[in-house]
Design goal:
By secondary structure, the protein is mainly β. The chain is about 10% helix and about 45% strand. The chain contains five helices and 20 strands. Strands 1, 2, 3, 4, 5, 6, 7, 12, 13, 17, 18, 19 and 20 form a 13-stranded mixed β-sheet that branches. The protein is globular and about 65 Å long. The mean pLDDT is about 90.
């Protein structure tokens, strides 16, 4: 039996459900340490398509599967096809709100728990006409950070969170929607988990429970030496962090990667950035893409950042390894048929932010 989907229009600030929208198709993605996206088609002449109520930047959307919220976020764009009689709604996850919020007073933290830094940013944004992101389930990660941004830099909060997450000892962040009052009001909370902490119990086997549609092999990230350049030190020179991989250098000619982080002022942080680059380029990577067989999994069975085992035996492609889920995309057609695809990354590549 097919899962039953609904799309709800919400008030972004309060989470109140305003109405159910008629749909002609649904597609949504959960993306690793990013906002994710959703596209919903509705009839152009549906009375629910009220321009006084359904408005980009103001309205929210929530996608409900068998009574559970599987995606929620903010409507940012609409596109009307008058010939086809359809209206396409384009939304992004709640992280997109923080792309428009800035550290207008600057921010300084000296050896502070990174979870507390993120909570401070979210709390400040919530207090000033925000979207009521809950942080009650954020726990200490055990990693301390030093960050310095002046008010003149006007650092984007979303970008600041992403940069913390991408450091050695970083984290996976997700905005999880939930029912405050079933059918009437939704909330959402920000969660942080250590990279590599979540392992899926599933083994995905080609032509058993999934179709592996493609596997690409890539060596462009291979790196024996990495340099990370930062801000000007005040003497006309940039702060630099360096990290090397002598084991890889013994197997291949020197290959250098250089990253620029113009707002980083601490050498230790730049060394972490350089180490992340070296770790990410330690081995050539296999990158599979696959579609799950219908009816066996839900869109929440695989979360971005999870490690899951993939088994493929098809000529040159002989894989049995764990991969990190980088994206889970779901498409639902007008008849309610559901298709779920996963994009994956090498476990070694994703472990570039594991503590050294």
């Amino acid at each position: 039996m097919s899962a039953k989907y609904k799309v709800l229009q919400t008030d972004v600030r309060t989470g109140n459900v305003l109405k159910e929208l008629p749909v002609t198709g649904i597609a949504f993605t959960h993306t690793l340490n990013a906002a994710g996206a959703a596209t919903v088609g509705i009839p152009l002449f549906a009375p629910e398509a009220d321009p006084e109520s359904l408005s980009p930047g103001i309205s929210g959307l929530a996608i409900v599967r068998d009574g559970a919220i599987v995606w929620a976020g903010i409507l940012w764009a609409l596109s009307a096809d008058l010939a086809a009689g359809t209206l396409s709604l384009s939304a992004s996850g709640y992280h997109s709100h923080y792309q428009g919020r800035y550290l207008v007073d600057g921010y300084t933290a000296k050896s502070k728990e990174q979870a507390d830094i993120v909570k401070a940013w979210i709390t400040a944004a919530n207090a000033d006409n925000g979207i009521n992101t809950t942080t009650d389930e954020i726990r200490p990660t055990g990693n301390l950070r030093t960050t310095v941004w002046t008010r003149y830099e006007l650092k984007n909060v979303a970008e600041a969170i992403e940069e913390l997450a991408d450091n050695i000892g970083g984290f996976v962040f997700r905005y999880v929607p939930y029912w405050i009052e079933a059918g009437k009001r939704i909330g959402h909370r920000l969660t942080l988990t250590k990279r590599g902490a979540a392992t899926s119990p599933y083994v995905l086997t080609h032509r058993v429970n999934c179709d592996v549609t493609a596997v690409s092999y890539d060596s462009t990230a291979l790196c024996t030496v990495a340099y990370a350049t930062g801000a000007d030190n005040g003497a006309g020179e940039k702060v630099v962090g360096i990290f090397e991989n002598p084991a890889l250098a013994a197997r291949m000619p020197e290959r250098v990667m250089i990253g620029s982080y113009s707002d980083v002022k601490e050498t230790a942080t730049l060394i972490d950035k350089a180490q992340a680059t070296v770790n990410a380029g330690a081995v050539p990577v296999a990158i599979p893409e696959l579609t799950l067989y219908p009816g066996q999994y839900s869109p929440l069975s695989f979360k971005p950042g999870d490690f899951t085992a993939v088994n493929v035996d098809a000529g040159y492609v002989a894989l049995y390894d764990e991969f990190a889920v980088t994206e889970c995309g779901t498409t639902v057609d007008a008849n309610g048929n559901e298709s779920i695809r996963l994009a994956l990354a090498s476990k070694e590549l994703w472990s570039n932010a594991n503590p050294s």
